[in-house]
């Protein structure tokens, strides 16, 4: 443009290969020759599975185009692919890769002249290509998902739709149970059913065929009620479209996006009723995939229907990351997005030279308030983690300038690489930090007004809590040890319990009362800030004073 863990595999984008490799790291290049695109990733892989990406390259020669009809890779696609692979081989060597692992999937596997293509690759680039079968593809997709999602509990299906085939991997409690490959790739199904002007009849036939294939291959007894984690270009484009429709086109990543199944169906209908040229202007959709996206998403919709799931979870990682981990001989372990999230949020704060005692104290106070009044305000349990992250990061804008530091905090968070944080969560965290001071959220604000309504409401609720918590540490002295909450008929009373070492909490009482209006508006009742001596302040008492 994007969340119970044991050992997360961390992917961090860096600028080229400038950073020195840590002890035990090996630099590996992984190249995936797919039916639609060829993708390369070069990364340093540590013995514990940590992955540091140093460069990437991709192109779309579409080796699978026309394959169903002719049974062969076209000469033009072969030449384009050879040129791409030559550049990738050169980059791998210049970046100092110790191993170059190249795999080919459905198109090369199915083509009668696949062996000729493989020899040409070896002669022109020096690269030796390993042709994967469908189950190998599904296994590598699972390997990657295991490193980025909590698969340790429950059932999960990993779905990857390439140009030629659909791969599905079923896991239970982190263990791989079944692998399936079906000839339902985006290029193949587009050419079979949606050539020329896509018709309603063609789409119905495509979905009927997919339903038939899935019915034969997927036993409801084994596959029912599993989560679906989706990897590949079809799904990162789906996430991009969905995020744009939710007002989050600026989201840093599509990784972790949760797309409701009903939204998937809406998007299929919307795109199907457009021409490929019209689709090229759809926000979130890559123009290069405009002619294939309907078929890929229609197949995905049939998988979701067969498994009767409500949502699809999008992964930003796929086969290439699985290749890196297997090449480095990293033992498979279940990822812990929770630990990765805590670490990446903390590291963003540290890179921004945050004032740790104040940030952590505000976080504690904010969570005390959340636990006391969050449910009554309409918060859900997952909001607690979002508030915790926003509280820790709310002042990192100081790193740029004190003036308008809340807006600087927003931009730093919005553009950060935060592992284990979904795109919508990252947008929420950035906005909550943005609104910890200054004007409250308003629909006329460009960063806020275009967001989907439920996300706006979450931001309002959590920023209201954060504003008061930050006010209770106005002097950055940790003077208020605890906030005691009583929700009376006539008011919401917040009583400050001072730290025994504090000489006074007057500044903190004033700060909290000054920042309580949004919470009062949300609660529908006055907010009273009560001191240790029983004195009471409210926003009305302090209105007009300086922030």
Structure summary:
The chain has 547 residues and is α/β, with parallel strands linked by helices. Helix content is 45%, strand content 16%. A hairpin with a 5-residue loop joins β2 and β3.
In words, what does this structure look like?
- The chain is an alpha/beta fold and 547 residues long.
- The chain folds into 3 domains: 26-133, Nucleotidyltransferase, domain 5; 150-314, Nucleotidyltransferase, domain 5; 339-542, Hypothetical protein af1432 (Orthogonal Bundle).
- It has 22 helices and 15 strands.
- The strands form 3 sheets. The protein has a 6-stranded mixed beta sheet with strand order 8-7-6-9-11-10, sandwiched between helices.
- Strand 6 (155-161) and strand 7 form a beta hairpin.
- The protein is elongated.
- Mean pLDDT is 90; it is low at 1-18.
């Amino acid at each position: 443009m994007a969340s119970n863990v044991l050992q997360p595999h961390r992917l961090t984008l860096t600028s080229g290969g400038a950073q020195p490799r840590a002890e035990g790291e090996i630099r590996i290049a992984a190249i995936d020759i797919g039916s639609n695109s060829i993708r390369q990733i070069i990364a340093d892989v540590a013995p514990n599975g940590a992955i540091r990406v140093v460069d990437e390259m991709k192109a779309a020669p579409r080796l699978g185009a026309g394959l169903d009809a002719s049974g062969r890779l076209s000469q033009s696609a072969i030449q384009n692919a050879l040129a791409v692979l030559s550049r990738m081989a050169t980059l791998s060597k210049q970046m100092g890769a110790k191993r170059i692992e190249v795999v080919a999937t459905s198109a090369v596997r199915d083509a009668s002249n696949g062996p000729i293509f493989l020899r040409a690759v070896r002669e022109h680039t020096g690269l030796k290509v390993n042709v994967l079968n469908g189950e190998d593809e599904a296994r590598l997709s699972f390997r990657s998902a295991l490193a980025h999602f909590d698969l340790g509990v429950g059932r999960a299906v990993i779905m990857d739709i390439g140009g030629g085939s659909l791969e599905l991997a079923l896991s239970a409690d982190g263990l791989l149970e079944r692998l399936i490959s079906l000839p339902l790739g985006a290029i193949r199904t587009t050419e079979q059913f949606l050539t020329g002007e896509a018709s309603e009849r063609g789409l119905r036939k495509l979905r009927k065929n997919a339903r038939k294939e899935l019915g034969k291959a997927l036993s409801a007894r084994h596959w029912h009620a599993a989560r679906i984690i989706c990897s590949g270009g079809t799904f990162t484009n789906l996430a991009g479209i969905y995020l744009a429709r939710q007002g989050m086109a600026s989201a840093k990543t599509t990784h972790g996006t949760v797309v409701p199944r009903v939204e998937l169906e809406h998007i299929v209908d919307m795109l199907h009723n457009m021409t490929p040229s019209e689709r090229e202007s759809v926000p979130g959709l890559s123009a290069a995939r405009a002619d294939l996206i309907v078929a890929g998403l229609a197949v995905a919709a049939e998988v979701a229907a067969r498994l009767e799931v409500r949502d699809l979870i999008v992964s930003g990682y796929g086969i290439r990351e699985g290749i890196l981990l297997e090449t480095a001989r990293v033992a498979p372990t279940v990822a812990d997005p929770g630990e990765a999230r805590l670490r990446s949020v903390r590291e963003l704060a540290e890179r921004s030279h945050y004032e740790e005692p104040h940030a952590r104290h505000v976080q504690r106070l904010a969570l005390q308030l959340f636990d006391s009044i969050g449910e009554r305000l309409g918060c859900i349990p997952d909001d607690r983690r979002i508030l915790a992250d926003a509280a820790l990061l709310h002042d990192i804008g100081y790193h740029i300038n004190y003036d308008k530091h809340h807006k600087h905090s927003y931009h730093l968070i919005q553009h950060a690489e935060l592992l284990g944080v979904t795109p919508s969560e990252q947008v929420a965290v950035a906005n909550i930090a943005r609104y910890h001071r200054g004007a409250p959220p308003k629909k006329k604000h460009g960063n806020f007004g275009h967001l989907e309504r439920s996300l706006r409401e979450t931001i309002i609720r959590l920023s209201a809590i954060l504003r008061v918590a930050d006010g209770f540490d106005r002097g950055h002295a940790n003077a208020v040890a605890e906030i005691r909450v009583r929700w009376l008929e006539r008011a919401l009373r917040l009583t400050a319990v001072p730290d025994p070492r504090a000489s006074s909490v007057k500044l903190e009482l004033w700060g909290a009362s000054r920042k309580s209006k949004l919470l009062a508006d949300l609660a529908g009742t006055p907010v009273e800030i009560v001191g240790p001596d029983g004195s009471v302040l409210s926003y009305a008492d302090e209105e007009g004073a300086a922030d």
